[in-house]
Amino acid sequence: ETEDFELDEDDYMLLQDNNITGITRPKPPENKFKRLKKAGRESEMDGRSGFSDHDGAGKSRTAEETVRSSLFGNEEPFEEDFVEEDQQVDEDEVGEDDMDDEMGDFIVDEEEIDVNGQVVKRKKVKRKPLRQAAGVSSSALQEAHDIFGDVDELLALRKQELERDAINSGELRGNRLEDEFEPFILAEKYMTPKDEQIKETDIPERIQLSEELTGHPIDGDANSEEESVWIHNQLTGDGFLSLFGKEQVNREIHQSDIVNVLNMLHTHKFEVPFIAMYRKESCLSLVKDNDANEQANEEETRKMKWHKLLWAVQTLDRKWLLLQKRKVALQIYYERRYDDEKRRIDDVTRQALNRQLYHSIIDALKEAKSEKEVEDVDAKFNLHFPPGEVEEVGQFKRPKRKSLYSICHKAGLWEVANQFGRSAEQLGQHLTLTRIPEAGELDSGKDSPEDVAANFTCAMFETSQDVLRGARHMAAVEIGCEPIVKKHIRGIFMDKAVVSTKPTPEGSSVIDTYHQLSGVEWLQEKPLSKFGDAQWLLIQKAEEEKLLKVTITLPEDAKKALMSEARENYLSDCVSKSAQLWDEQRKMILDDAFLNFLLPAMEKEARSLLTAKAKCFLSMEYGKQFWDKVSVAPWKKKDADKKDADIDLDDESELRVMACCWGPGKPATTFVMLDSSGELVDVLYAGSISLRSQGVAEQQRKRNDQQRVLKFMTDHSPHVVCVGASNLNCRQLKDDIYEVIFKMVEDHPRDVNPQMENFSIVYGDESVPRLYENSRISSDQLPAQSAIVKRAVALGRYLQNPLAMVATLCGPGKEILSWKLHPLEQFLTPDEKYEVVEQVMVDATNQIGFDVNLAASHEWHFSTLQFVAGLGPRKASALQKELVREGSIFSRKELVKPLGRKVFMNASGFLRVRRSGAAAASAQIIDLLEDTRIHPESYALAKNLAKDVCAADGLEANEMDDDEQEMAIEHVREKQDQLDRLDIDEYSRSIGDDKRETLLDIKLELKCGFKDRRTPYAEPSPDEEFWLLSGETEDNISDGRIVQVTVRHIQDNRIICTFDSGLKAIVMGDNYSDDGFDLESLQLHEGDVLTGKIKNVNKNRFIVYLTCKQSEMSRWPFSRSNHDPYYRAQKVVLTQDDKARKQKEAKKHFKPRMIVHPHFQNLTAEEAMQVCCPVE
């Protein structure tokens, strides 16, 4: 009796590897159970993800190769990967040895199900014999076949797909990327089809994105003239006063300059930096400053400036285009809706009335000049032509909300409303104009209102009074929605309305002298026009938090005058009985329209207007702070020789920075060394350099770290050390570094580099480095470094190139928005903040210039490329790949092809081509004009100017040969005194062209190309050092403020405390209590929290002196000098409701809870004492 036995698959594989024969795998029986099919999605997802480790041809790939292939495609042509076999092998040659083993059924494809729910049987694919490839053994081929299966059919399908997509080669790559990557990844890398289209279109990227929202501007002189008038009124009116804060605004802005700017934006596709730099003559009133000192010295130097007026014109242009786009869309919708209504209504009278209303609405829409006026027109249209009701499909339907106006209208009360006299439109015409003779006088008729209304009673309106009430409501609503009336009321309300505030009971208990709302809690009748800063945002926030009660009203005299004017134009002059009855109805209509519709609507508009003005002001303040940060020049050496001090650090060996960030131990204090290009050279961890312990081991570790730092500085010879000012421990760190330098000079004077003679140690703000430390871009640029190293690198780079370091945080993550620059910036949305950031970065980058060859060699410098005029993040990424591939360029003309002519026209003047980066080692000649702000279109003008200057020096221009003419520019740069003698005004008149501003720029650039116009770097002042190191602000630490500190030490005559930030505070014995300072009776211990009042702050010693005397604490703090002129403090008078509420709260002495003790009584402490006292 023998029994069939079966081994494990591993045993069979072991026998086969050792060439042991005689034991073979048993054939699977026909009725053998099959593996269960797992209905999971893992295999499905793996197959579709595209991240397989093997490509279609069965070749193994690494993950890096897979991603590279996905992003950039295969480097070899696709046709080479697929070779057809001419010879076919008969299927009968496949033997029994080619059958799958038992593991072949382990991975099972899901069965397909047809529409009837039946399993679709797939046609069995006939197996082909293995093909012998050259240089591949049969065993290896068999093993590959066992692993990957037969791929002939897949290859054939793949080839057909490639041939089908060969017409559009880019489509294959796009489809593959979309299949393999999540959409947000493609969007971050700017690799979506939309991004590719933007890259290929020869229009500046920011203009493309703007026109995508606003639509293409309408060409025509009439449109430009109308828009320029509107923008001019906006700029010179009160609406944009907050745009410039306290700066001089009463300047002459020429409308013709606005027309020129609009033409350059719309037709020529020029960006603001290009217009400001190379088209000054066309818009002088928008770019010139009225500062007499600057005009007098304009030939000596030109400082960087934020062209706010040009950006304002562009912003207003975008608003205008959006307004026109909406008006066009509304007009199309109105026409379609009116046609539908005309087909639906058969009543001739109603059709005539609708026709009149429609034409009136269209005319009002065409005349609308603001978003509010368009909304008024839209409200009137929706009132008279409500949107059609859409039948809902489904079992459940939403309840339909019908307004009282629509109910009255369907009941036919519009006929009664029309008999009240003048329509809402006629009332508006009488209010805005003195007299309309053709309108005639009102004729009330002989019938009384009740008699007329009796003819329109129905089930919904059973009595005449109900009919009149509904008709009055219709008339009032129509007046409240009439655009002409609202425009008239809006002008009066915005001019005369006042704002008043008073604190709520909660606000009275919260708001003190040092509260953020101090100074705005008691405003009395402050006019809307007097709100010029961000004060309203604080009031709005306080109202939301129920700390303030805010009212916006018309003064009573203005309200009475307005109502009187309306009655004069709406009531009749007749004195008959029926006329008086009709006038009573008209008075009720006016009261209803003004008190319930117009004035509440105006209050809402006033709130939105105040919010818009406050946000506009806050945006500009935020922008100023940001501009001050990015317009600072890099640190420069303090050389004794002034000539060396003026070097623009073009030599890459000029500025080497050592940056240091303090660490508590984990991580340790870290030093990094950066070369002149900002690249990381070396890292040193010195965790014991700032130890204060006097132990032998600790002191030895400190000396060892000092020696290591000494060697680190000796090896790299930095010009400056930047210490991150993150906390008070950095003061000791700076002293320790000075100690190392003194030791280096004393012990190793010969090893000191001569360039370190004027060595400096400066504090640096760590706010931007900390953002960089936690950003995604830092992981890409410094992948193998720790977080503190990334922070130190950013600290040093910010000292070398503030603009480029800030731009690094302006990528897809927009980490720069987390940089705290203004105490009220939380009122701005991220989009509003980034709009300002982008304006500032674009303006600053183009005035500073972008070094093409330096960035090609050092990637982190590419961060500012997206802000060059004409470019953007998408076009910049494409140009970056081109520049990296080229390595170096030697002429701006080489960029025409990759950029396109229009983009090149915008960008070329701001791209520096000089000997930097890899180009420094090249012997190829670079024209001096390539490293100037002179635009290529003005190269001929610059050369002619140089020739004329040389001619004035004794050489005739026509006597110069070609070589001498080429050397003219170099000649005038070497002899700048000749350029100084050139009178630009006279030379401009001699050439007969209005190019004075351009010639002045050319003259300055010929003297020194791309001269740094930024504000020179200045070390932090003592006050700035105090705020940086302490981490406190002036709002937190100021004289007279009540603060809380922690007790650390109690001495004989003083108490030493600390703030949460580590700042030291001292309470002298004389200032502790009015009763004196007695250690024995002192109820105070270390670790206790002490409340005190700041007497003064010694910023040099980093000490705050406090007083805890009750007499000082209770004294009312000094009054602020910056109180609002409309501030009127009043005593809080509690109303009866407030008193009752407070009394009720006073009775609640315990938290309500279930108490089941039989002897429990709800008593106060005083009552409990009385109960417990023995009865006398």
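the 2nd protein, sequnce then structure:
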Amino acid sequence: MNKFKDFIEIDKKFQNSINLQLDIDNLSKLNSYIPTHSSILVLDGFLNNVLSDRDKANILIGPYGKGKSHLLLVLLALLNDGKGDITKRTINKIEKVSKETAEKIKTIQSSVKPFLPVIISGTEKDLNKEFIIALMESLRKNNLMNVAPESDYGKALEVIAKWKKDFKQVYESFKQIVREYGRTVEEFMGELKEMKEEALNIFKEIHPKLTAGSEFMPMTVNNAMTLYGEINRALESYGYGGIYIIFDEFSKYIEGHEKDTFAYDMKILQDICELANNSKKQQIHITFVAHKSIKEYGNALSSDIVNAFKGVEGRLKEVRFVVSAQNNYELIQHVIKKKVSDCKPWFQEQNNKEIIEESYKIPCFSGLFTEKEYKKIVMEGCFPMLPLTAYALLNISEKVAQNERSIFTFLANDEKGSLINIVENGSEELLSVDVVYDYFQNMFRDSISLTNIHNEWLKADYALTKAESLNEEKIIKAMAILHMINRNEEVPVRKTEIRLATGLNMADFVSSLEKLESKNIVTYRSKLGVYAFKNNVGVNLDNQMNNMIEKQPLSLNWQEEIATVSELDYVLPKKYNQEYTMTRYFKYVYMTPEQFLNTSKSEYLFETYKADGLIICLVMLKDGDVNQIKEHLKELNDNRLVVIYPDKIFGFSEQQNIRKLKAVEKLLKDKDFLEENKVLQQELEIYKEDLIFEINVELEKSYLPENNRCKYFNTLNGVTELCFENQISFNRFLSEICLSYYEHAPKINNELINRKSVSAQIKKARNLIIDAILNEEELNRFEKGTSSEATIFRATLMHTGILKGDSSEEEGCRRIIEEIDAFVGQCAGKKVSFQVLYNKLLGKDFGTRKGVIPIFIAKEIINLQDTPIIYLQNKEVEISSSILNNINERPQEYYLFIEKESIEKEKYLKVLEELFLSEELRKKQKSKMQRLNNIVESMQRWYRSLDQYTLTFTKQLFEENEQGYLEEDAFERMCSFRKVFKGIELNPREVLFEKIPKAICHDNSGDAVFENVTLQIEEIKKYMDNNLVNAKKKTAVQVKSIFGARADESLSACLKNWYSKQSEKSKSHIYAENITGFMTYIEKLTTNDEDEIVSRLCKIITGIYINDWKNDSYERFVEELTYVKNTIQSIKESEQSTEGENKISIKQGKVQSKDSLNLTVTTAQVISFRMQ
């Protein structure tokens, strides 16, 4: 065979990446442009922007090394001149790919004036200054400096030149000062010409020292946006149609920018973008060049930078430079020049032939190329690279390439590790993937932000230190590259793909891979079916694991450990679920034979494991007796149980995997261990995944029917061993179980409501329906629309026929309604727990989902002729959607009672409504379920409005012949009636139909009693309403009697007449508080209202109002009032005796004889007073 260098030529036009600033006038770079469909599509878009005067601010996004800069170089050449020979050749090349684009270029050349190209590199700290410098540089290159306005820098140079010519002494002082700054005048002026900000600042400091304090303030334009606008207008007279700005390497600018000045620079960019978008005849275009959008940086950029960029981002149109995979391979084909005939010896070599043919079967090639295209573009075009080497080069360069290292530099740069270097060094073997690893490995090392790539490099770099042959190194590097690419759907890191990437023959590959495995360098990840690196840095993991395992108990709870890790979780009986439009499921449960045999009732299992059926996987730790299992299953007699009896015991190897898994989980929870061995966390996570996978593989082998390693038992057709070919036949059997056990389940086609637990949103919708039903509102508003409540209403009540209640009723729903009706029948006249109903609806034959039950209950309750009462334990509660929701959650706490209606009860209730209900409540027209509550609530309100005396007295105040007297039997009934309402929380039904009848008639059985109760309540209410009024009347008559007046005389006149007859001495006498108060009140009495007078007298004489009297208050009042009257009348003017009296003299001023006030104090009363 020849050597590659004998017939392969690399097109060196590709050897360097494009630097727009350096290559803008490089015609050879323009000549090396290879048009592809992808690049022409982008170029066409930019040309359209110029022709249609739109989208003048944009950002071109594409991976490194894909030709973005090259494309823009071509664009600038076409827009700047476009009349040279090389430019014409480029247009011809473009025309071969797209005639339309070529025509647009010709239109621009003939009708659009050239654009001045400006390249921004983003290397200056001050972006405003960078834009100005870049514009000045472009003007200089294009001999347009006379267009440029004066800058501060230019003005400074003019001043220095003037000093040198006209002010020699000043100039000499200037030279001396500049030397103090470590510069010569020539160096300083050179810095000003380069527009260095430090030099300008120094000049501004120097200027006042040399000019008697005057500041350097030239009137020049220093704002980039203003400058670009002015120069763009001026360029029109020089034959230019505008300015085209390219901000190259914008991604690097973003990544390396200081956070402090970023917001300021973004304002500059925002202004320039606005200037571009607003430009008209003289267009300004700006294109940013980036390898990814700002959003794709994720957490790599601070939120401050991301937020600051948003103002710019909104003004940019995003243009994606998408290069098709096929175009990429074609690019390689264009770079590597050779004759296919010279390559044939390598294609015919047996191992190479096998590798090339097998490689086409990999999805990355078979999904992209036909076999003919694959041979031409990949096999022949990418020669001497193996197919996967070309694939790796394209994908790795896309992930990590920079300008100094890219697909083009690999192909055409003559440097260590490049294709041209390998060819020139006389290589004779097809290049395997390891050459890609070698070329880019420094970038892998430095790409710390690319976590996956850097981590894979770390593992591979460590693994290479353990490799003992070139073949082992090839395998390690190939694995690393494929894991970095991380596209398992295209190239999984399996044994076959690794071998095709290395180019090794089968024997050498297998031998080397086995050695790497034996040395614990690589490991097979069973879960994913791929090979990966095993990281052994820092600790001997196996020893650590063994130490953890030794500390575990000898016997673990194996069934629980298996259940925790098992991926055999639920099985959905598909046929049944489809037919009944719901989701039932069977749950896998792991038990030892002993646990199963000790289960006395299947209900215990279903209380623990909430499911429609259970698949009990027996965990055999030793040989067992299958007949015992069958016999016990027969005793349990529950068709919902399927028992799986495995042929193989759960032995040491299976137990050891569980132990390893527990050890790994414990290490992952050990913060100190992970802190000391950070590199091991990822390996432990991977190891954990693999252990879980391996355990589940064994479980599937033991318990899935297609593996024929277990026996199935069920009682549906007698306890016989069942045979299933696969999961499909097993699933059909589970549907048969459901059809048998849940035969009459309602078919409701809405899984949002037809389920055990509904979401908060669906519950809210259900509440709207229930409340509308209970309040007897119009339901037609739910019959149309797409709201949750409308769809649920139609699914549960309309489509099932329940709303109409005719023969169209869905069979299962009809039976549910019948069960609810039967339950209601049980509740007539007695409390029955809702648990009774729910046991029936949720149990055998129905298995109703809880979500729909409250709607059906509400509908049946509202249709009752009788009155339903719901109890929470012993307390009556108002029937509402909230209560029905609570019943749904805790049916054992709630009870239903149906109060049978009758004519007598109805009359009784109507009388009570007339007696007690307010006008407001009558107008509300509440439902009958709230009727009882309203009546009792109104009676309670009436009761609480009564005075304390009426509510508490137990001894009649009146004699038989007096108004207000009540027969003793009636009085007892009144007292009993009052007791009913003493409680704070009353159960309305019990109050009305049990407690009141019993209190009044001592009998609450039979409806006939209500006629008598009605009459008695009317009498009692009338008596209690008038009791206080009658008490006041009687008291007034008694007061008149005490003071010597007739019953028909005025009480006010009687008292005032008596008062007028008392001695002056008695009026000035100081008495006890009640006597003094009495005399004061009578003295000032003006009202004739006897009720008011009696109330005040009671308060003054006894200290309590008549409203608050007790049984003996009347007698006490009469006694005290009589005493007061007698005491006052005993004080006479004519009496000379002063025995038992004390005299108090109150002096005013100094003369006692004239200004003294003498008060006589009767010592018979205990008094106290204070004078101020």
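The chain is about 55% helix and 10% strand. The two ends are 136 Å apart (CA to CA).
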